[in-house]
Specification:
5% strand; two-stranded antiparallel ribbon; mainly alpha; 17 helices; 3-stranded antiparallel β-sheet
Length: 408
Amino acid sequence: MKCVITDQLVLSRAPEGPLSGYVGPFADFLSAQGYALKSIHRQVHLAACFSQWLQHKGVALPHITAEHTKQYLRYRAQLLKLHQGDAAALQHVMGFLHREGIVPAETAPVRRLTPAECWTQQYEQHLREVRGLSEATILNYVPFIDRFLQDRFADGPVTLSCLCARDVVSFVQCQAPRLHRQRAKLMTSALRSFLQYAQVGLDLAAAVPGVANWSMPSIPRAISADHVRQLLASIDQRTATGRRDYAIMLLLARLGLRSSEVVGLELNDIDWNRATLTVRGKGGLRHEFPLSPEVGQAIAAYLYDGRPLSPSRRVFVRAKAPIRGFRSAAGVGSIVRHALQRAGIQAPTYGAHQFRHGLATDLLRQGASLSEIGDVLGHRHPQTTMIYTKIDLEALRTLALPWPGGVQ
């Protein structure tokens, strides 16, 4: 006998077992997350089958664990061909049960941290809460510090007062040859940051050796203005996803935002009355940008007719379930890469940062000063902007002083 779960969802038979009363609420949960009806039907059917198996095994509701989902998948594989996504669907079931308090969440046994790990954890908390660094920077710094402390103290007590310049130099000399130059520079930056944080008696941060570097070694790879126009014209704004992608591309190309800044934009960062956009940049700094009619209209078009319903406060959310903000800057990078490929554009790279370089290049050629470009891009140090002086050699020639004595 068929069983009606929701107005649009019907199962061939009524659910049985300990989860039978929660199949309907689970379907509503999936619908609120933005899953398509076909996907909801498949996941609900799997939940009903799982519940029937639990009943056969005599597993009561409070005692269901993640281990039971693994056992059921093995059992199901013996009878039927497992479909891609079955394991994820059962994780959704368990996540729903935990979220609603129906099944107590499992707690993994807590491993006691070594003294070195405790210091690393405290340093990570300092970077996040006091320094306000981005997650990307924290993920880059912390492993180096963990390796340094493990190398020097192993699992024993951490006595920072025992550190000397030789310890720091030896670690850098050992690790640097194995790393790409940019990674080696990150390592030395992380070490200086940690030693300053730890406030060791001697100024050991000054003992961290530098990594060989050449000033402005390469010209920034910037997408051309023609390619930007071609890319924007190629995006189909008749679709919800197209309106989202178009607004994202404009933020990259017209304001020079970093992909992480686009990801972090929230609805209350837009002041429609003042036509401004507040962006959280590196180090937790906030920058206010004027919202041009072109960019503002693109964002408004997406918000009014394109953005799926979601409890997330992020401006840009995923087009597929679960409907939420992007987890990281990689989401914007993926949008850029696929858009360039669809448009058949041979850009310098497939990354999002080339739009930032492209904006700086255009500003420089229009006569903007380096300080003005630095203000637009949110650079904290003038040296960061100096790299763009290598882009337009013809413009630089007009600034060159005449050779003493004139032309011979």
